[in-house]
Amino acid sequence: MNEDPRIRRLQFRAWHRGIKEADLAVGGFFDRYHAGWGAEEIDWFERFIEEQDADIMAWALGTLPLPEQWRGPMWDKFVKMDFVEIGKK
Hints:
- This protein starts with a helix and ends in a 9-residue tail after the last helix.
- The protein has helices at residues 5-15, 20-33, 39-48, 53-61, 73-80.
- Helix 1 (5-15) packs antiparallel against helix 2 (20-33).
- It contains 5 helices and no strands.
- The chain is mainly alpha-helical.
- Helices cover 58% and strands 0% of the residues.
């Protein structure tokens, strides 16, 4: 477990979005990439998770245009969605 309270809080918020699809997307993104983030990436993610789940998912699916403030390397990784694991039942 990470001892940094900021990282622990971000992890919790990433996985407790309110919509299961957003939990998988945002939480999966956090789990995959956060260990390599510096201060700038952590700041970006902290602002990003303040957005509404419906907006994040619409941007990722391309049904709404992505606001300029989110464009860049972090978004490029997020939109790939290659970190989302969906279990089969």
